[in-house]
Amino acid sequence: MKGISSVVFVGLLLDFIPLLGAAEIRISVEDPRPLRAAVRELELALGYPINYEDPAYPDDDVEDQTHRSYRGPGRLLLPRKGRIDVAVPSSTQVPAKTIQSLIEDHLKRKNPGLFALRPGGPPYTVAPAHNALLDTIISVEPGETTFMGAVLAIAESLTQATGIKVHGPGMLVGPRERFAFSSVGEPARVALQKLFQPRTRQPEPIYVWDLLYAPGYGFVLNIHTVKVRSLRPDGSTTLEQLRAPAQQPD
After folding, report:
1. Quick one: three-class SS letters along 166-198?
2. Looking at the predicted structure, is the pLDDT value of residue 11 above 70?
3. Quick one: which of 60, 69, 146, 202 has the most CB atoms within 10 Å?
């Protein structure tokens, strides 16, 4: 399986680093999913592509956040709010170490969930340290599909393999062109990594996933493209979409 070239990837990011103007940046978040919020802020600040996966939070780590005025069916159940506050280097040379510092701060503060940085990258993956859903072996039979169709097929195969409902993205994502895809007898995470590889000889957006747990509902598999915050000449900020290097001819 061809991966994203880390050499080219770092070269893409270095164009943005001088805009930061500081040796360190501070990642400070308070959120029901503080580690996810922290890695997404890191993604915007430095352009690190990071996949994030929730555990199935136990009831003790879940709070009812339903607004008191709501009288309809169902409740808004979210993980207990936590905090992360870390100063990290504004450098692309040690992304894994930087991401690990967020995980360590998460653990030190006793926020809900135990997480680990999976080997490999970029893209990097922050996943549950134990019993991660995307470790499940799935099978998506060979066939022609679209990017969104493949995401939904992976979600459905996970549902069948685990008995836990896995919902796909609520909005259409990815290119609409059809292509051959399969993932038979592989972990769901590997299936997603295969799906996210460049397929054309043009630079393509870099995709990452969020797998979010919703108590009583199952999991939701969301997909987004990686963007990095940069400065315009007038001092305002804009978001630049990062792209993977084009597929190389055989």
Report:
1. EECCCCCCCCCCCEEEEEEEEEHHHHHHHHCCC
2. no
3. 146
In single-letter form, the type of residue at position 210 comes to D
Question: Are 203 and 157 within 8 A, CB to CB?
Answer: no
For residue 133, count CB atoms less than 10 angstroms from its CB and return exposed for 0-12, middle for 13-18, buried for 19 or more.
Answer: buried
Average pLDDT, the chain: 87
- Residues 46 and 228: beta-carbon distance below 8 Å: yes
Residue 221 DSSP class: E
Return phi, psi of residue 149, to 5°: -60, -40
Query: In what helix (H) or strand (E) does residue 9 lie, and over which residues does it extend?
Result: helix 6-14
Segment 64-70 shows an average pLDDT of 82
Average pLDDT over residues 188-210: 90
β 227-231/218-225 pair status: unpaired
